Amino acid sequence: MHISVDPKHVGQAFDALAPLTDPTVHWKVTNMEHPSLKAGTDNRAVSNTQFPLYIKPDNVDGTCNPECLRRVKDLINTVEDRLSTSQIK
């Protein structure tokens, strides 16, 4: 899953999201100033900065149990709340 923010707000977004921790999700910031792919300027991969979220499945078969999915949902809600509260677009 990717969360895209306006490049002007990447510092604020990082500050808002950095304190969040959850063993289910690993995330990073993708620097889109020099994308290695060729795309039109209307492509979100070029016009925004992305925060990819990587969900770590709980089960050996690569699936998530209901508790894992609940934690991911709660984390996404928290991310949305923090970005909205900080007026990050």
Automatic annotation (TrEMBL):
<dbReference type="GO" id="GO:0016829">
    <property type="term" value="F:lyase activity"/>
</dbReference>
<comment type="similarity">
    <text>Belongs to the phosphothreonine lyase family.</text>
</comment>
<keyword id="KW-0456">Lyase</keyword>
<protein>
    <submittedName>
        <fullName>Uncharacterized protein</fullName>
    </submittedName>
</protein>
<dbReference type="GO" id="GO:0005576">
    <property type="term" value="C:extracellular region"/>
</dbReference>
<dbReference type="InterPro" id="IPR003519">
    <property type="entry name" value="OspF/SpvC"/>
</dbReference>
<keyword id="KW-0843">Virulence</keyword>
<dbReference type="Pfam" id="PF03536">
    <property type="entry name" value="VRP3"/>
</dbReference>
<dbReference type="InterPro" id="IPR038498">
    <property type="entry name" value="OspF/SpvC_sf"/>
</dbReference>
<keyword id="KW-0964">Secreted</keyword>
